[in-house]
Amino acid sequence: MRLFTPLKIGPWSLQHRVVMAPLTRMRASVPGNAPTPLNAEYYGQRASKGGMIIAEASPISPTAHYGPRTPGIYTPEQIEGWRRIADAVHAKGGILVLQLWHVGRISHSTLQPGGALPVAPSAIAAVGDTMTASGQRAPFETPRALETSELPGIVADYAQAARNAIAAGCDGVEIHGANGYLLEQFLQTRSNQRTDAYGGSIENRARLMLEVTDAVVGAVGAQRTGIRLSPYGRANDSGEAEPMPLYSYVTAELQKRRLAYLHLIEPRASGAGQREVDHKDVPSAAKLFRPLWDAALITAGNFTAASAEEIVAAGHADAVAFGRYFISNPDLPERIRTGAAFTPYNRATFYGGDAKGYTDYPKMASAG
Ligand code: 8OZ
Q: Of residues 42, 181, 198, 247, which has the active-site annotation?
């Protein structure tokens, strides 16, 4: 199988192409939002020799948060927590990339310092609901539009978070540019109505993402930096009427930065974790963007073992990230390699809680 041939991504030598997708699980410490020993056990269970894990989205600053118990990457305690995770993954010969996250208008005032409103490109509320600090659903709030003068601070927060991730022993970082969060809010017209240099034209709307990318690259190096995009996604009230002109420009600009990889989300699974979706007759992001991207390309979104093998064999992607089935199958690469059945997942235990539905999914009997 092509999925089990080696692959170089940046400086990392993958021994197979079954990547663990970034998965929000909401089990960091209270208070402190620091990764715990249980989190390290979970990642260690899912690590494999030469296997790449993209760790869950990690808030880069106190204003970046979504919901309760997401693990930050901006305090000393959080960095120590991530170090335990990196050690657990490395003990199995795995590769750990940390995802850098600022949710912008998807946050809620109960999560913000001083109970302030979430920040965003423009004072436009997303349609739908989000999670409060206590884990309740609540309607999106109308965010506060960021001043132009505040943007360098946000860029600096990304760079510092990237440095923190490397200091914690992570092998690299992934910029979360997808699913309706801050950087995508700047990209898309529905959430960005700014009249300064960060709004209006495609070049202006892409400016913050590219400045963040340059800062992260400056902090940890292009070869340790990847980015995740969802050009056809609809999560968190996102979506551009005509994605191709916008995302072709963004991809061309990112290509100049020589990043380690581009990680795309196929629109087949754009529910961003909220529900099961399997849209039919949607374009393949990997097929559309492969010709625009020279370095490694990872794709994600509702793949099966068969469709993952097919897309890699066809050359549309170099690797495939699995989310939900990596939750319920800690040895997912081995199951795919041997054609073993997958353990079904229980959505009720995806977000929050403890070991149940987290570290208690079994490996195959023979895997030990
Ligand atoms: C599901 C629930 C909470 C967050 C994303 C980080 O959409 C997420 C997320 C998904 O990328």
A: 181
pLDDT digits (tens, 9 = 90+) for 262-320: 999 998 865 555 666 667 778 899 999 999 999 999 999 999 999 999 999 999 999 99
Question: Do the beta carbons of residue 114 and residue 62 sit within 8 Å?
Answer: no
Residue 355, sorted as left (phi over 0), alpha (psi -120 to 50) or beta, turns out to be alpha
**CATH class of the domain comprising 2-367:** alpha beta
CA angle 90, 260, 227 (to 5 degrees): 95
CA–centroid distance, 135 to ligand 1, in Å, is 14
Per-residue pLDDT of 95-142, as tens digits, reads 999 999 999 999 999 999 999 999 999 999 999 999 999 999 999 999
Q: Is 232 a catalytic residue?
A: no
Task: Please state the pTM of the whole predicted model.
Answer: 0.98
DSSP state of 356: T
Phi/psi of residue 24, nearest 5 degrees: -70, 125
